[in-house]
Amino acid sequence: MEQANHRRLPKLSNILAFETAAKTGSLASAADTLCLTPAAVSQQIRQLEEHLGVKLFIRSKTGVELTEPGISYLAFTQEAFETLRVAQQNMAQYQGDHTLTITALPALASRWLMPRLYSWMDLYPEVDLRIQATHSLTDFNTTPTDFYLSFGDEQYPEQEKIALFRDAVVPVCSPALLRTAAPLTNPEQLLDYPMIHVDWGRDGRFLPDWNEWLLAANITSRPPTPGPSFNLSAMAIDAAVAGRGILLGQQALIREELQQGKLVALSPLALPLNKAYFLIFPKRILNKPRARELVAWLRNQAEAD
Question: Most buried of 249, 253, 269, 299 (most Cβ within 10 A)?
Fold first, then answer.
């Protein structure tokens, strides 16, 4: 390896290729992120290694692994890039940029956030508020997201986070469904109805299911009644409103349906979810106009529930 040149800075593109590969653990994934070929990413990293005079990665068929010098250099590069991002964020106040982007889980965005957010829009009409819904994890460095409403906070150890609320589930159904069967006089009769199931995949263990609720209600005569299953909470709520069965509905997501009489609660027994919802954001975002006001408003909305 050539003698290191510690006076002249390496190309920024080479450093970015290194940081992206370190974060993804793969040259192919880094190439997808940077819209380059894996060969181009590999070449940029080799140029950086030659410039520094050290090996930054151990390459294998399964990906790349940081060497000890690579781990050390990554810490400095991430700090430097974060400083640049903060500097860019600060420029917004001089450019008149009044855009704030909120990303949230789809059901949370449509059924908890949006019914409340219109009042904030009225308070600050000068802000260009943008709402995005996704089930994917959010990367604040590669997306326009300023704030993320997340289920849990363990995926974002380096970001600012505020616990908003911990939701709970209660059994609900359409009033029309009750009119088609005998009146409910005891909890055991819930087993006479189709039970709508929600499958959250890897996060399913944090959402109480019918087995847990029936056990908590001391209903153990037989297992839950089969019914339709959905991987999206919003679809499950729509099915319950349509009278397709009874649902363990999240209280924060079915508030409007309960108020309008589209759904009725079948029991006061509520089981809390095993994780809370959080507001996640990089600290630098607070430099944007009205960002602090939005944080305070979202916190107040959660506390009001």
Answer: 249
181-212 pLDDT, tens digit per residue, is 656 777 888 888 999 999 988 888 899 999 99
- What span, in angstroms and rounded, lies between the C-alpha atoms of 263 and 278? 27
* Tens digits of residue pLDDT in 105-123: 999 999 999 999 999 999 9
Closest of 164, 167, 15 to residue 76, by C-alpha: 15
Lookup: tokens for 157: 């150890």
What gap in Å lies between CA 23 and CA 12, rounded to an integer? 16
Q: Which amino acid is at 14?
A: N
Contacts of 296 (CB under 8 A, 6+ apart): none
Report the predicted TM-score, pTM, of the whole model to 2 decimal places. Answer: 0.71
CA nearest to 13, candidates 88, 81, 86: 81
All domains of the chain in start order, with CATH = 12-91 (1.10.10.10), 97-166+276-304 (3.40.190.10), 168-272 (3.40.190.10)
Alpha-carbon distance 187 to 142, whole Å? 50
Question: Which residues contact residue 232 at a Cβ distance below 8 angstroms, ignoring those fewer than 6 apart?
Answer: 106, 107
Q: Helix crossing, 38-52 with 27-34: angle to 10°?
A: 100
